[in-house]
Amino acid sequence: MMMGMVMVVDGGDGRKLNELMDLIVVIVVASVIIPIFAIAVSIFVRFSFAAMFGIAVAALGMLSTIATGLAIDAYGPISDNAGGIAEMADLSHRIRE
Fold first, then answer.
1. Which of 3, 11, 29, 85 is the most exposed place for a label (fewest CB within 10 A)?
2. Whole-structure pTM value
């Protein structure tokens, strides 16, 4: 009899985790849908103003940010590894600045 009660209580704890997972899914879906709608609106506005040339200009504008984003993403782990090496080598804190 006691074992059945424990299982029911454990099931209640799982419900809290399920609600948290639902919240995470909503946040992830919202973070994906908002940029998709922004891109769709941008394409529609550009097409209504300048036809295919407007879409080409909008695409180039979006593509021009890729190089900066990739450089920032690639530089983060490199600087983090360098900081870790400096700490392990017991270098002064001025090195990290």
1. 3
2. 0.44
**DSSP string covering 12-45, please?**
HHHHHHHHHHHHHHHHHHHHHHHHHHHHHHHHHH
- Give the span between the Cα atoms of 15 and 21, in whole angstroms: 10
> Does the CA dihedral 12-14-19-22 come out positive or negative?
negative
Which residue range forms the structural domain that includes residue 50? 2-95
Q: Determine what percent of the chain falls in helix, strand and coil, rounding each to the nearest 5.
A: 90, 0, 10
pLDDT in tens, 46-58: 888 888 888 888 8
Residue type, position 74, single letter: A
**Going by C-beta distance under 8 Å and a sequence separation of 6 or more, which residues neighbour residue 47?**
54, 55
